[in-house]
Structure formats: structure tokens, C-alpha cells
Design a protein that fits this description.
By secondary structure, this protein is an all-alpha fold. It has helices spanning about 1-5, 10-45, 50-60, 70-75, 80-90, 100-105, 115-125, 130-150, 170-205, 215-230, 230-235, 245-255, 255-270, 275-295, 300-325, 325-330. Helix content is about 75%, strand content about 0%. It is globular.
Length: about 325
């Protein structure tokens, strides 16, 4: 890698500039305010109690503390990696157990509607309704992953600390800003690194290897770039006839850059979610499987697909009752 950096120093510098522009024009304006808000929100939520009916339904379906619902909902309203940041913050504030935090991280790191509408729909697909539809598919696939991880868990009964915060609110805001600055520095560092990595991969001819696959060159390059860094891969799908399916796959996966951003947050808190990458890969395939019937104008197949997944979930539940483990069978 060092040799490639020396040979292609000009391209490396240009890739760094592209990464800096992406951070300055898109990432920081979109993520920093919402990260400050969500960190402040999770601190203030200690004084609130969720309705008992919602708590029972959530724990029965997903097998983790209902406090994890904050992370799940905010991840679908914000963007990568807001969900991971919220779950980590809930664990650090002792609102959820370590087991619940690690399990919920597998389905609480999702993308929000802003990216689907502003980038995927408006720019790549040039159809806002398609962006909305892909967002709905993204939400459904995240719920299916959450159902797959559901199991009976006594730790899920752990309640949020309801002791009211008696200090000044401005101190919570100051702490939220400081922690968000540190998190944004990590996120932007990951984006810059993967921007350079993608540029080097292109220069040494790694993308050309995908011509051997039974996939058009544009889609194969978009897949490779998107598996590394989401935004770059998504933009390459513009004009593709199968852009909807490939975009659904990449949005479900998120990209290694996103996963490393999330990992930088949870590792600092001492968390190590097992099966995280398998879950994101499964979510990518589920998203693509739901998007394909829509592209082919056969939406009834999507209903059949969801029904099949739920039947498989029941079968895996039976397997768990006998073996105590489903990780090896899930994917």
C-alpha cells in the first residue's frame, strides 16, 4: 500500500481532496447536528418511561430491552452511523445491558430517509417515489433482521435509570457537542482513508478483475466501491437498468467505511457485537430480494418473499430450542 501511495501520489492527493469535499459539503452538515441532538436526547430520556404495552411488544418480538427502540428509530430517522452512536450512548449511560447493546447493534445501524430521497431517489434513480420505496424496503429488511435476532432474554427486562437529571441542561449540551466532535473526527478520518483506498484499487486494476463476473462492468464496479464506501458506489449506479436492486443491496450493507465508523464508536465503549457483519450482509440480500420483484413489476413476489423469511424465522426458533444457537444457520 505504501508503494502504491508513492507511485500514485497525485491520485492520492486528489482522492483526499474529494474525501474532504464530501465531509465538508455532505457528511458534517448532515451528521453533526443530529449526532449532537441524539446524544442530548439519550441523556434526557433517562427521565422518561416507555408505555408498558409498547415495552411488552418490543421485548416479545425482538428480545432486547425496549430502550433499544430509541436507537432503532433514530437510526432510521438519521443516517449511518447514528444508530450505533445512540446504542453506544445508551450502554454507557447504563440504560441497557451489554448483551442487549451488542445484539441491537446488529439491526440498529441503518440509513435515514434523507439519503434515500436526496441521493438515491433524486440523483441516482431520478425518481423520488423510487427513493421512498427503497427506504420502505430498507425499513422492512431492518425489521426482519431484528426479528431474526429476537429471543427470550431476561436481561431485556432491564429498565432505564429513571432518576431525573438535576444539573443544568447546558452542561449536557456541552458534553454532547464535545463527544460529537470526537465522533465526527473519527468518521471523517474513515471516509478519507476509504476514499484513498478506492482510488488506489482503481489505479492498480482491482476493479478490472470484476469483468470476469457475470455482471455488467458498471454494476460490478459499483458493487466493489459500494462494499468499501457507500456513497461512491451508489453514484456509479446512475443510468443502470438494475440500479434499484443494486442500490437496495448497497444501502442494506452500508459499506466497510460505515462499519468502521460504527466500530470506532462501540469499541471505545468496550462492545463487541457478534454476528454484526453477517447481519448486515443478510440485510443487504433481503433488501435486494425485496427490490427485485418491484423492479420486475411483480410486487406479490415481495409478499411471498417476506412470508418465506418469517417461516424460516419460525424454523430457526425451533432449532434454537434444541441447540441454543442459530448463528451458524441464519445466513
Amino acid at each position: 500500500m505504501i508503494l502504491a501511495l508513492l507511485l500514485y501520489s497525485g491520485e492520492t492527493a486528489e482522492a483526499m481532496l474529494r474525501g474532504l469535499r464530501l465531509c465538508g459539503s455532505n457528511v458534517i452538515p448532515a451528521l453533526f447536528p443530529i449526532m449532537v441532538g441524539t446524544r442530548l436526547l439519550t441523556a434526557l430520556l433517562r427521565t422518561l418511561t416507555l408505555p408498558k404495552g409498547f415495552t411488552r411488544i418490543w421485548q416479545r418480538c425482538f428480545g432486547v430491552s425496549s430502550n433499544c427502540a430509541y436507537g432503532f428509530i433514530l437510526s432510521l430517522l438519521g443516517s449511518y452511523p447514528v444508530g450505533a452512536a445512540v446504542i453506544t450512548q445508551l450502554y454507557e449511560s447504563k440504560a441497557i445491558s451489554k448483551e442487549d447493546a451488542e445484539r441491537s447493534l446488529c439491526f440498529c445501524n441503518n440509513s435515514g430517509p434523507g439519503f434515500f430521497l436526496g441521493v438515491v431517489g433524486a440523483i441516482v434513480l431520478e425518481d423520488m417515489s423510487a427513493g421512498i420505496l427503497l427506504y420502505v424496503i430498507h425499513v422492512i429488511s431492518a425489521l426482519l433482521i431484528a426479528v431474526f435476532h429476537g429471543r427470550k432474554n431476561e436481561a431485556a427486562q432491564m429498565a432505564m435509570n429513571t432518576k431525573a437529571y438535576d444539573g443544568p441542561v447546558w452542561s449536557l449540551l456541552l458534553q454532547a457537542i464535545q463527544e460529537s466532535c470526537y465522533a465526527m473526527l473519527q468518521i471523517c478520518g474513515m471516509i478519507l482513508f476509504f476514499s484513498v483506498l478506492g482510488s488506489l484499487a482503481e489505479k492498480i486494476g482491482l476493479f478490472s478483475l470484476f469483468r470476469l463476473l457475470p455482471v455488467p462492468m458498471v454494476e460490478s464496479e459499483a458493487l466493489l466501491r459500494g462494499m468499501l464506501e457507500l456513497t461512491g458506489g451508489i453514484f456509479l449506479l446512475k443510468g443502470s437498468s438494475a440500479a434499484m436492486v443494486f442500490a437496495a443491496f448497497l444501502m442494506g450493507w452500508g459499506g466497510l467505511c460505515v462499519h468502521f465508523q460504527a466500530a470506532a464508536l462501540w469499541r471505545r465503549a468496550g462492545l463487541a457485537p457478534k454476528g454484526y457483519y453477517r447481519s448486515k450482509l443478510l440485510q443487504a440480500f433481503l433488501s435486494a430480494g425485496l427490490a427485485w420483484p418491484v423492479l420486475e413489476n411483480k410486487p406479490v413476489y415481495s409478499i411471498i418473499f417476506i412470508g418465506t423469511i418469517l417461516v424460516l424465522r419460525i424454523i430457526l426458533g425451533k432449532i434454537r430450542n434444541h441447540t441454543g444457537n442459530t448463528d451458524r444457520y441464519a445466513l
